[in-house]
Amino acid sequence: MTINLFDKGGCPLERQRFTWKELVQKPISKLDDDAFTRVRIILMNGVEHDALRTKQVMLRMNRHARVALAELMRVEHEQATMVNWLLSSDHSPLETTIGFEQTAIEVTASVAQLEPDPYLAQGYRYALLEDFDHLYRYSALLDRLEGKDANNITQGYTDIAPARPTLVHHRSPANDLLEPYGPDAALATKLHALTLTGGEYQTHDYYMNIGPVFADPLARQLYAEVASVEAQHITHYGSMINPDETPLERMLIGEATEIWNYQACAEQETSPRIRAIWERFLDYELGHLQVVMQLFKEVERRDPAEVLGDGKLPARIRFASQRDFVRQVIAGETQLRKDGTKFVDESAEARSSIAWRDHLNSEGSPSQAVSGGWHWTPGTELNDVAGADAAAAADAAAS
Question: Per residue in 306-319, pLDDT tens?
């Protein structure tokens, strides 16, 4: 499927309508549908909500675009509803959490390999190791609270093992920042940054809402700890974005981001019913882009090609197991830390981050406690001594 962003096309905004039965469709099954169908659903829910967030901010600061923004936001909201309601009630909140972390791992690993800027690619690999460790900690919690094997959710696509321990993810705020891409950055770089920022925002918000519903004190603490790291990731990925872009530039890139992602979903979806949704929303987003390009021309008196280049979409996210790549990153980069916007060896980490987390962890670390003595093996075996020793050794080295 070849798409050029400047080709006239897409469903006109005024024809984009829904009924309640369309919005609330039959959900997927956690066991019968492929795990990557759920990955795509979670990813696109995050992308849609970030599009809504951007437009809501713009509504408050742009008089000329108010009507168009209100119309666009209504459809974006309804698209987000249809996508989010595809997640099924047969997932417990913890199982959905496992799905969120698998999405972060597999999508970030694919983006890290697509990113043309070596520095930003390093940034994706860096945060990838943290989300990978979160999956391990939540898998331990799932086993302890529900007696379930997280592999039933990940379906064997994603390893469940420690990486950079969550204990050491906590940094002082200035050390979460990265150098942003510049005005001449490739379109791919812009699409990657917006996609991952939206994904992390969604994960953060989900954990902030779900964490308090648990009765188990350790579960509540673990969600609080990981939500804090997800907030850091929003800063980490969000700081990649060029802060000198105008709001309408950001909207143009945002629409291109939605188109790029929906195209990837439509091309790789294995469920015909869900693929039809991705194709419909791809058509809708092409229509949204026409509206935003016209606004850009009217308000900024500029050519959208200044932002979108020749309009050709770059290589898409690959929805497949990235196990080999992730293992390479774990083997070679787990010891990396941050000093300002630089990636450094753990021996050169900023002292401000060490002091920050020493205080935060001074009364104990939930992520360490939840996985103490636990190692994932098929069948939710809690008493694998060799595995527990290996996990304990990794955590001891971090401490």
Answer: 999 999 999 999 99
